[in-house]
Amino acid sequence: MKKPRSLMKPIAYSLLFIFIVLPFIPLLLSSVSFGWQWPAIVPESVNLRAWEYVVNGNSGTWQAVGVSLVIAFIVTAVNVLLAVPAANALVRYPLRGKWLFEAIILAPIVIPPFVAVMGIHLTFLRLGLTETIFGVVLAHIAPTLPYMVRAVMISYHTLSTDWEDQARMLGAGPVSRFTFVVIPHLLPGIAAGASLSILISLSQYLITFIIGSGQVVTLPILLFPFISGGDPAVASAYSLLFAGVAILTLFGMDLALKRYYQNKKNTAGKI
Hints:
The chain is mainly α.
């Protein structure tokens, strides 16, 4: 029985390397290559031209990274404000036609974004919201909100109303019950939904391009022309940068969540 268990870690590490680390190796080689052509297995020469262009301030890379993160975090914050009451109503209240409301909220998961983006664009043109970060934020809510709502709904399904009733009997008001009972229980679901919201918002190209009209420049807006324009070295460098930004953002969220629970544990231990 010990032998199969002893093999689990090497198998897990091997799968982790194959599916997560290995795909980045060709991108890394391509980003430092010059004229890497088939059938060569490795680049014939190494050149840092692509990375020099990407990190150069004149390329607009860092401004695009900043705009991408600002949009992603604003979208995620709005999603939290919308998803918590929506999930509460969908889980706890016997609404007539609940399935219809849930289907409408979760529809963007199934329906491709470009189906609705043209109608959104026409509406935003009339409202003067195109070519603005605010308009892009509003447009990003549609494909990201369903994931946040679904994650918070799962947390609400495991939150018993008895816990809130006990807090009410102890004299806690609505705000205190929500702050000290509901939110701590929903936090893992909110974190999971926020991770998906940030990743999806960061990766939006079509919606950002149409609503932003080329004036709101995010990282995918910079990346796509190099993918389609035949410069694989710069495209690979931007792809690695994009992956790095996403990974660091999610790592920062995970670290903040762990620190929150650690501080909560330390406070409870002192009491």
